[in-house]
Batch of 2 targets.
Target 1
Amino acid sequence: MEGLADSRILIPARTKSRRTQAAIEQGIKAFFGGNALVAVIVLALITIFLFREGFGFFGQNLANLRLYRQAGLEYVDIIRATAAQHEALSRKLSEIRLRQVRVMEKRNAPLDEINAALASFDQFASAFSDTAENLHGLVSDLTEQASGLKERLFARAELLAQRSQLEQNGEHDAAAKIVLPEIDRKSAFDSLHQGAATFESVSAEMTAKLYNLLATAPPLPDPGGQKAFEQWKTQTREYLAGLPAASEKLRSWSPDTAIPWYRSISSFLFGREWVTASFWQDWYGIVPLLVGSVMVSLVALLIAVPLGVASAIYVSEVASRHEKRLIKPYIEFISAIPSVVLGFFGIAVVGQAVRAASQSSFFKWVSFFPISERLNIFTAGCLLALMAVPTIFTLAEDALRNVPRGFKEASYAMGANRLQTIARVIVPASLSGIVSAILLGLGRVIGETMVVLLCAGNRIAIPDFTQGLGTIFQPVHTMTGIIAQEMGEVVRGSTHYRALFMVGLVLFTITLGINYLAQKFVARFRMSIG
Amino acid sequence: MVTVLEMPEITSPITVNQPATAPIPEVERGIIEIESVDFAYGTNKVLHDISLNIPPRSVTAFIGPSGCGKTTLLRCLNRMNDLIDGAGITRGSIKIEGLDINAPHLDVVDLRRRVGMVFQKSNPFPKSIYDNVAYGLRIAGITKRTLIDEAVEKSLRSAALWDEVKDRLHVSGYGLSGGQQQRLCIARALAVEPEIVLMDEPCSALDPIATAKVEELIRQLKEQYTIVIVTHNMQQAGRCSDVTAFFYLGRLIEFDRTTKIFSNPAQRQTEEYITGRFG
């Protein structure tokens, strides 16, 4: 008995009954399971919410597009496009002039002489822009008409919605009180359609004037300028040849042609314009934002991948223990900097420095320097790279460190030096791990908001890729930036609001895809190192 | 006390180095001459005054309980311990064919090419069988395809693996069985035509049949190479080595012909270890 009592001191006997024991175990299980469940439910709710709010966009956007046609805005835009083309040609003329002036300045010609040499050209240019006077007049007349019609149609649709809302609520009396204004669309369109005839006479007049003008075009002193001028002339002739097609389009246009449902999707996915809160027509095309995000991320990766991977290789393979202790936490520390602080730094230091560098005489040979915008793709890319480096570094270093020691030893034992071992054994063995590190870095970069909002310049336009490398010094707007910027201002439930949710969905899909790919690569990495 | 043995099978005589304090004898040269070597990992001294001469074209086995320093000594022979921070020889010298391998001007790349190594755990690279064997040649700067082809076939034949893999040279080395992988590693080591091959418990992860094949291979290879093998397996040391060194607690206890060690060891500790009374 004594011996038994002693052993009970070491391991106390079970005082709780089997039932309490089971209840405790159940409780523990429920606690952990409950936590997991909450996480899953929250995630599901977010996803469902995103989809619900987002998909309403297509219906509303379709209505938006239909209104565009029904109110005749589309009709006016056909004429507006020809006017815009004319303006673009005008701008090109001034570009040609600017180039001429630069060439002559290089020869140290005095300003008076330059102006004298270009006098006939200037005359030509102003005569050219004058030819479109009637066209612009027509556009502004029709614009007024169409936007008036649109307003009336829109107000009517609002009232209609209000009435059906009231009827749904059972308030039939109140519903009956709402009087729908009659809109005489026929007469409205008749007056709009007269625009076609006016356009024809205006364009015929303009064509005749321009052909005369082209025939009397003055020569330019510089052969390069002359070449550009000749190019411009062919472009003008093409423009003039296209005018009858525009007037044909006007004749065949009808406000009642149906807009197919898929236009709502395609105008979002392939739309090249994102215009909101416009007096004329809102466009929700994701392409400029997508291109902006992709360009910024690409620049960021181009900078971050060499930095991150190379420093990971250095730390895991070359650095002494002391260096490792210093470098590793230091790089990982970068990720602790709040992105808004990085954004400040980007505006105040990086952007400023890049612009100052572009203005220095040292970089005079670069064709696209000096740059005018301090905030651009490059500035944002540099800072995003800073955010991606810790991610890429940490994960790549992990992958490199996980390469079995045996590979390294076998390589050294064969007489390989350090560089050969790194290049031929360690990096190939950890390649899929490194790729997944890069992908996760990309995921981090493409979802980053604050830095791009502050540093990308926020101009909603597809950058002009004809500038080659200079493209990366143009401002852009990004998908994340637009959501952050506009979400606070939109009316809940409006088309704009839903469009922002759709942008969020696209972003979500992209990051999901990137993470999926990264996981695939991790799985491959695990297999390759056995 | 030191005795010079008569060794009819082996051309150079072998010294038996009695515990640490014994003086270094005048002996004929082995291919590897280890002279009163001390080795430490940082402040932790693991080898004490080791002296022995390893005869050429023979198999030398290092035996002893775990942690006795036999692997450390093996890794000294091609300076693999350089990869470990703070580890190094603190006294004594190791000469291979008369050249001090720890001399400051010595080209360690060249040394490792002459002293190949096979590891305890088979470690083929995640590359094809062909690329594994060709690795040593390629890093040595050989690019001529016909030369590499020839060398790959020759070393795979030497490692008795050619017939098993000749139809799938370009599939991953990971597709092979454990024993085949270890022979692939031997072929990889042989491809650069070393003079000495170090083997660190090459059969510890293999089944008996694969072990028998590797042992058979070791017996064949000693025609051309000097082999030093670390093993925990007494039978293995008995079966395939010509001379055996027994280590205990970082000291060389006995070094003699294998037949002598296994039949009539001079030291009591050796006898107790071999008969399984400790270790």
Target 2
Amino acid sequence: MTVMRDKVVKALVELEVRGDENGLMPGYNVLVNFLPTSFWNTFAERMLNAAPADKKDQVRAGLYQCAQECGYHTGWGIINSDEFQSVVMPMVTEGAKDVLRGAFAVFTAWGWAKSGVVQIKDSERMVIRAQDYYEQDIKSTNEKMGFMVKAVSGAFFDLAFGAKYPDGLGTFVCEQTKGIEVGDEFGEFVVTKK
Amino acid sequence: METSRTSHHDVLTGSISLTNVSDLIQFIGMSGKTGELVLRNDHTGEDGRLYFANGQLHCVLAGERAGLEGLAHIICWESGQFFFSQDVHSPCSNVEMPLNHAIMEAARLADETGGTAGFEESLFDALDDDSLFDGFCEEPPTLKQQAQRRATAEMKKAEAKENLKEVLSTLPHGFGPTPRLNSWSASWRAIREKDPSGAKTPSPSSQDPVVENSETPVVPPTNPERREEHIMRESTEILSDLLKVPGVDAVVVAGRDGFIIEAAGSSNRVNIDDLGAAIANTINGIEEMGTELNVNKFNDLFIEYGRAVIMCKPVGDAIAAIITPDASKLGIIRHKASKLFDELKEIF
Amino acid sequence: MSIPFEIKFDENTYRHHVEGVTMVMHCHHYMSLTTKLADSLEDMGGVKILRESAEDAIRELLDAYFKAHNISGSGERLNTGREMYSVLGLGKLEVFGNDGGGEVKVLRSHVDEGWVQKFGKSSKFVNHFTCGYLAAMFAAAFGRPARSFNVYETASLAMGEPEGKIIVKAN
């Protein structure tokens, strides 16, 4: 038995998203918001398009960092949440590998990207593929724009094989090797040690 | 590939690397030809000779191997030359089944023997029940046990040979489906696509179409650059090659969690995500069973639905599934897909 | 009072939609760092880009919502926009205004409170997202095109004020 993503997706796909009496959504150890994907996409796209050549790398690094910290902290909140403990953990038989599979199943169920694990080498390398991620809608930059999946993949691997939370952030780094937004059939993301 | 006319015979020649042996044999069978097909393996220098009468394969000779054993040996060759001479008659008859069935049987034997090993050495080892239980033992067998097993295996080999003869002699005339056009035409298209100009392949045989006694220079067995390129191939390319195997409808690679990593082919009839989940659930169940029984990891899984078959195989940390609507092609699919699966293992 | 809010799941793409608009959850870390990135690249118009991105995205959502729920009155639209702000987990507002502009009290704020949780008290205004949101809300309510309203903060929860204050003015 390993984590079966269809079971996770079916269990978690119905989002319970709505601000409380203060208009806030505390959950998973963070404050959650629920916004149009076009906001995040437009921001990334316009920032990159507006940046002069010497600042493009700074923008890319910034976009990566935003998602990396999001993935690390929210990821921690997710794997310690009641949902994860009740739905995913009973299926975990292969330790960190299964927790990662579960995390990507949740990642899929919550609409970030239809993504999953292709290969994991403990503490060394992980390959993720995504057939549908919202950043694939960004076309005008003519470059790979999957900052969210990229950085979150790295952050999840940090949680699995880096130092104990919250000291493991940035142990691993992720590169996007393929992107639907640049004409590939899927997005591919490779995590390696920094 | 080209045809030419010598003083006595029409000759068809070409390079094996541009097609594959089974497609070539099927083509000759479909054409209803009578004659001799000579295959020359560049790698080993061996010759194989196949004799046809009105498209029916009558005789196979390959060094010391003959009949199905010879065909199983030849069918794996990937490089070399072939020459077909019309109206050469068969010196003997050692293939006693329809062509298509012979190809399937040979492919199956080749698959079981790892493609290159001898028929006797490996086919009957596979029939040795004792070896099936090796996976149950934590300790390796002692020398005495090994000797006993060898003796048992020898007896079983003799028995199996007799049984095989009986089975072959009882096969009805015309057994097995007629070869379909698509397998050859697909290969033909592939050849044309590789060389759209239609220019001749610069091979010794194309320069000298005379078959008999042509002194073919030995080409180095492997080209290192090509090999490297082979290793670096993308999974998408490999899946696309799997789809070219005749009879394969769709190919799916799924993670152990049911995540569809990649898919190719006509899988519109099923929801691809559901298929991934179903495959993963099934494999997990089978692996659990294997663990409980303390046997080795599973190698293959065949699920038959009428004539359609789903064949699953582990590829690294993932599972590859091939969907074929025609179970009769399973042997040849297994044979042809084997190396592609090995390539996929490197990726996943 | 709260507004109906139905999230639809697309079984093919696994995306979530509200009235046809694709939506996604994120956390205050993401929002705070995005805000900080825009601030740090102010020399290339980072803050303006953030505000305008928010305005355009929220306008699309509000227009779709108003259409789907047949909401046509300006007052009702302003009120729905205010409610939507809370439903999306962005905080709690009090809104006073007309087609010339208005004044908005920020009682609770995802952006400001998230910022404080992550970085501590801020020395400057950081709620650029809400400024963009309000520009979209006023323009959608009064049927005006994008960039019809100028929006600026005068008090900030992130800077330690008990409530935030944002001024909206028609161009």
